[in-house]
């Protein structure tokens, strides 16, 4: 059930087509019911393709990027090139391995983002944050199956907390319970603290209740804000399984989102995501 929820946009399109076909074949009852159900889904899904009203705010622009490195197989030079191209301030990575750290160093990441909090591990459990500005490690989640690095980034004039999100996928032999628990452990917005950003591979789409919970508690999805909420991030460069948006950047809803892009990173099965938003002056 959790996996099929990710396919809601496809079910929506299929429902509209099947309902229209049924009406063309004069199957009035079937066509009408199917179209009515499809329209309910359309009302939920279609707005993601259109930008939301942008709140007015004055402050510093921040660029945050997230990339799942596929157990260290991603092309480090391509990733660092993207960091330079988008002038990234903070990079969150998942599935960071010790070998990948060495590859990133050889590719020159430290010259662009000299400050880091890396929790590199063999396999797919590593995580990390690299920053243009000084940072201090934070603990924002309970212990989980995969590491989720967090840091307080000391931006000029203000601070921002960034969490590299990576809960265990729900499609595992033991079922989705661990994913549900780890999604529930992601921190809500803190109105009394620094602005908080959750960036990473959520293994969830905007149709999952666990992700909607965060959006109902003070975050916005950067892609959804600019009309890119249907842009798929996994699997990169493949048509099966059907591509879906599993990677997100959630920002405090007081932060106007300026841009959102998906970036192909050779060697990874995920496309990176990068967003530019305004950190309101406080």
From TrEMBL:
Pfam families referenced in this protein's UniProt entry, alphabetically: Exo_endo_phos (PF03372)
Transmembrane parts of this sequence: 6-25, 32-50
What protein am I looking at? Endonuclease/exonuclease/phosphatase family protein
Q: Which SUPFAM superfamilies match?
A: DNase I-like
- Single GO molecular function: exonuclease activity
Give the domain of life. Answer: Bacteria
Q: Transmembrane: present as a keyword of the record?
A: yes
In its UniProt entry, the species of origin is given as Saccharothrix syringae (Nocardiopsis syringae)
| Domain Endonuclease/exonuclease/phosphatase, residue spans | 65-270
Query: What keywords would UniProt list here?
Result: Endonuclease, Exonuclease, Hydrolase, Membrane, Nuclease, Transmembrane, Transmembrane helix
